[in-house]
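ENTRY TYPE: paired fold submission
RECORD: A
CONTENT: sequence, then structure tokens
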Amino acid sequence: MEITGAELFVKALKEESVTTLFAYPGGQAIDLFHALYGEKEIDVILPRHEQGLVHAADGYARSTGKVGVCLVTSGPGATNLVTGIATANYDSVPLVCFTGQVPTELMGTDAFQEVDIVSITRSISKFAVTVRKREDLAETIKKAFYIAKTGKPGVVVVDLPKDVQRAYGSEAYPKEITVNGYKPNTSVHWGQLERALDILNNAKKPVFLIGGGVNIAHANREMTRLAEITGVPVITTIMGKGTIPTTNNLYIGNIGIHGSYAANSAICNCDVLFSIGTRFNDRITGKTEEFAADAKIIHIDIDAASISRNIFVDVPIVADAKKAICALLRKAKPLHISEWTNKINRWKMENPIDMGKSGLTPQMIIQSINELFANAIVTTDVGQNQLWTTQFLNIDEHTQMLTSGGLGTMGYGLPAAIGAKLGNPHKEVIVISGDGGIQMNIQEMATAIVYELPIIICILNNGYLGNVRQWQEMFYDRHYSSTCMCRRRSCGTGCNTPNPCCPEYTPDFIALAESYGAKGVRVTKAEDIKTALLRAKQNTKTPTVIEFIIDRERNVMPIVPPGNPLNHMILQSEESSK
């Protein structure tokens, strides 16, 4: 029996166990939507913007462990995916993004809504391809899902010309596939692991540095066991947070330019750095020449290209994080390093990350979330809100954090929460966003309303693009250039501090939330935090927006100034040291 390419597309989604499709229609994808009409096995979700759509698919994928799937039309529909594709690919999120395309005979003629999306996305995806023949369609889709979810996960873009969608051909869909030149590593080199274990067992001051690869591999329990058996302290990147429970005594904190004093100090003073699943990017290393300068470095990563790219390592191991950790567990043994762990614990006690008791602080808000939500998914936007969340949010096997780590994409938090809630309807989902980031995809409030998703949206409103403003304060002579969100044309030419004459904030987030049909509440005092969160928790029909009015010049501390090694930390900002 012959069927159209569009009908085969729907069959392929079913064969790949796709039950949720994030999709926005258009002329060059209309045949695909026609084939989806009345389909009961696939829930087609219509967000309000393609960027919101791809972030929602990303949040769905991260929170469920499944492949997220997108469908958009050609031209602007496809280009609106670009930021979300890069966001997901940087963080190794498995997505398959289908884009409509003009008929093959019109490709290259500057036809209406024609763009070469494959060329545009090739450098920011794992694989991108245009299907030019109907007979290649089934194999290409099968290949797309296989590549997206195997090895180091990532984004695959499949461009579907309109004539391929309409053409008739076989209904067969392959059960398995082999991709020439693509062979993900599935083994563990035991000889290298034994070298690593020998170095670790002889260490006096070892640390584990854990990145997002361990979360992606779902090796959290195994990593916790490895840490507890060996007694080696654990430091994480932002993306690695949660690989062991943050309440575990062996967890030290995050590393990097906003890492904790204890974590950064431990990296600078360790003699063995055992890293798993991290790229050693500039946000965590500081000045690379002085990063773990006296340590032997072991690096396990599924991506061979990530090893010794930024930091030279002594023992490279290309392997899946979970398989490597399980292999290590077979021969791991306790280390006698109490003097070292006691020193790290003293660093933690003497220099905790603490915003103090005065005013309505992000720390109070996030700690209240810790107390009131024991089984939640927390998404963040990017900026100060993200950094505070990664500092204070408790994560264990019941609580998950989704954030844009590699690309740092503002506008991620709200649509990612929508995808997470659709994939996890029985879990509470909370967005932590800034007043700048929330406005980048605020239209997705309508998506949350129409799909009846009771997500809780916490807006930390300081009236600034806070992270850039903090850098302007600390390193650019307080020249607040284009970071004040209250600024009007009638304001003066220079801005370097808020004052009582500043204009009112636009928009009124509570009125805006209510105009969408959501609930809204504004919090200005610390004693009202828990009341507002409990009220939101009880609203199970619609989203709730909680606007927290925080200090306008509150900073994320500690901070490592640009170009400095990790042990050159500024621990307190001026206002907290007075």
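RECORD: B
CONTENT: sequence, then structure tokens
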Amino acid sequence: MNKKIWVWVTVIFLSVLFGLFIGNLLAYSKLNGSSYLTMPRFLRSQNNKIGEMLGLINKEYVDTINAGLLAEELAVDLASSLDPHSVYIPASTLADVNNDLEGTFSGVGIEFNIQQDTVMIVSVFSGGPSEKVGLLAGDRIIAVNDSNFTGKTINNERVMRNLRGKKGSQVKLTVRRNGTSENLNFSVTRGDIPVNSVVASYIIAPEIGFIRVDKFGAHTYSEFLNSLATLYRQGARKFIIDLRENSGGYMDAAIDMANEFLSAGQMIVYAKGRSYPYFEARADGKGTCIDLPLTVLIDDFSASASEIFAGAMQDNDRAQIVGRRSFGKGLVQQQFLLSDGSAFRMTVARYYTPSGRSIQKSYTRGKSSDYDHELMDRYLHGEFDNADSVKIKDSLVYKTIGGRTVYGGGGIMPDIFVPRDTSQYTPYLNRAINLGYLYQFAFKYTDENRKMLTKFNSWEQLKEYLDKQPLQNQFSDFTATKNLKATPKELNISKNLIINTLQSYIVRNIFGDSGFYPVFYLNDEVVKKAVAEMKKK
């Protein structure tokens, strides 16, 4: 199998699993009004079988056993034996797991990347703690609290563990800055750092607004409303919502977003479980975009709350769904806080789209490995490339409000299927991607030309400048120094993709995601198809 594609699928698959892990619904969603529930009586009892066994092991076992560690391992195994989305969360990681959806965390306010065993500051958050003390994009962090912070042991987890911390606490950063001979010391007071879930919002074509939603968090709906209002003022009368690689999050956010596009009384989602009270959400008719044309983009990694939104739009014949079949997560989790500060996120219900279909793909209890490999099986079966290769259960037939046929049993099948575009990939480009050379070159180029690049007032101006630069030639020279050389044929085939990707990364280094996506999506077949369809309406 093509090595680059294998790596690409594996990396994104692991990312979506992590996203699903942190994206499970918390108990304060509309499905339940309370924040946490107490532990069931049999788990609290000292006389339950598991507790008895642990007590005996701790007291009588032949060797010394860390009973606490054993209990942690048992908790993980017990949760995973139920279904693929029930999980045990240790107390030590619960805050980090929740932060991504809560919309803020406490830290120093930088975006970083690790290159050559050194932490590089890619960007500094506007108004954040680091900007206030004078840290700049391009600075290299070489010490934290006077301890060396370079070398092979530096990884993302260690960086975040040292830079994040309690609000109001201080951390001393020693940096090396281009053009400055001595090391610079900064004392940074940690503060609240926003985590945006609407990462791109812009006019993509005349009268067409484009919004990319990365996750469904605590502030997603308010961010989304602001984006809608801004784009409407700029002339947007049609909208494209990009939910690709959005692994879900809070159901509330998906329901509130769907409400903006549906008429009063239209079903959004309903849920039920063995001990779970029936719940349904319907539109209240107060949405701001009930009559405006809409297209929703999904792919194999769109899951959970993304599928709730896409399913509501599809079943109500409210939007065209464009892309590839979604992930297929239709289980509802509730978070139970345990006595030691850890948590058990347990599946308590299934949700159903307005037509009555369950999106959850099939699984066998206790066999999570098969479930985990399902996306890879889709790829190997050709589902990423051909709509005819998608396995649909013909017996699970449902009808939209307008009588169109849709199917249950595993994800949302788009109305318009757009396969992966691999036409510009070559062995040279595949290897350059796998080794991270595109990103490395873009950072190096930005770092060496930062004074020039920061003079531009918009990503449009910067891209116009980059269009005139020999980026592909400079990149091929860069990879040659790393013993990776391209043939003229490979450069010709991959030229547009190389240039587009390099420009996107360079623009991101200066303007962040608000500039990255408009440039990157110029080469995106799904986006181009969505725009073409919207222009027909």
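NOTES ON RECORD B: Confidence is low (pLDDT under 50) at residues 1-46. The first strand starts at residue 87 and ends at 89.
STATUS: closed
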